[in-house]
Amino acid sequence: xxxxxxxxxxxxxxxxxxxxxxxxxxxxxxxxxxxxxxxxxxxxxxxxxxxxxxxxxxxxxxxxxxxxxxxxxxxxxxxxxxxxxxxxxxxxxxxxxxxxxxxxxxxxxxxxxxxxxxxxxxxxxxxxxxxxxxxxxxxxxxxxxxxxxxxxx
Length: 153
Description:
The structure is a single chain. This protein has helices at residues 64-87, 121-131, 135-142; strands spanning 25-29, 38-42, 45-49, 91-102, 107-117. The protein is of the alpha+beta class and 153 residues long. It has two domains: 25-62, no CATH class; 63-145, K homology (KH) domain (GMP Synthetase, Chain A, domain 3, 2-Layer Sandwich), CATH 3.30.300. The radius of gyration is 19 Å and the shape is globular.
């Protein structure tokens, strides 16, 4: 998992660090047949997203928050596998179960990590500690600036 740019301390009067593009996605939707169905191209990979039927969608793909959870879970699993591989630890598999809850004011994500392999307690604790610092975890916790402009066709 490549790390996104991190914020650095900037001395007064110094130039702000430049951002570099880490990844891209393009989402296209039309209200013609399925009002909330969208086609996603994440990098070079095609995906589909939609809303569930109970919210007026056709349930032709995962809803946006499910994609967010999938991003966090996949980053967690990949990062832990990379870390264990580097340390030559006997991690055989990682399963990450996630949930998103909201109370109308804010939200929270629960993440449960299952580690398979002959790991000792210290290795398991270290991997759980690493899961708190994956690139997507850090981006979500820090809050990512979003700049929106119109891209006229």
